[in-house]
């Protein structure tokens, strides 16, 4: 059984809040099955955009870097993704140390 997108986003935001990492929903997607992108803003003009990927060989779900570089370029990449998928969620995390918690158990 898979979690709905809105429950996963809520749980992720709670984990970030508990770790004192600011984050907010930039775009709310479909509550049931919308894909989620996470933008990590390191507050130095750079950013990374993460996307959840499915490994067909192992069945594992992992977070991969979809795009990284100047924040304006990452924002442009996210904007393009939103035109392809109107059900997409976009979460922005702001952390100078680059913490995003996506590599922690339970967030795959």
Question: What can you see in these coordinates?
Answer:
This protein has 108 residues and is an alpha+beta fold. It has one domain: hypothetical protein tt1805, CATH 3.40.1530.20. The protein is 26% helix and 33% strand. It has a five-stranded mixed beta sheet with strand order 1-5-2-3-4, with helices on both faces. The chain is globular and about 35 Å long. The two termini are 14 Å apart. The mean pLDDT is 93.
What overall form do the CA principal axes indicate?
Answer: globular
Estimated structural class: alpha+beta
CATH homologous superfamily designation: Protein of unknown function (DUF1491)
Give the tally of β-strands: 5
Rg over alpha carbons:
13 Å
List keywords for this structure.
108 residues, alpha+beta, hypothetical protein tt1805, five-stranded mixed beta sheet
Please specify the SSE layout and strand pairing.
Blueprint (H helix, E strand, L loop, with lengths): L4 H14 L4 E5 L8 E6 L4 E9 L6 E10 H14 L4 E6 L14
Parallel strand pairs: 2-5
Antiparallel strand pairs: 1-5, 2-3, 3-4
Gist?
With 108 residues, the protein is of the alpha+beta class. It has helices at 5-18, 71-84, and strands at residues 23-27, 36-41, 46-54, 61-70, 89-94.
């Amino acid at each position: 059984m898979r979690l709905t997108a809105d429950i996963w986003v809520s749980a992720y935001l709670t984990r970030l809040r508990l770790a004192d990492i600011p984050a907010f929903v930039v775009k709310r997607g479909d509550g049931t099955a919308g894909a989620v992108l996470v933008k990590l803003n390191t507050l130095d003009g750079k950013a990374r955009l993460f996307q959840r990927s499915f490994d067909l060989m192992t069945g594992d779900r992992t977070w991969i870097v979809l795009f990284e570089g100047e924040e304006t370029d990452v924002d442009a990449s996210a904007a393009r993704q939103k035109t392809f998928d109107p059900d997409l969620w976009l979460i922005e995390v702001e952390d100078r140390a680059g913490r995003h918690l996506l590599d922690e158990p339970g967030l795959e």
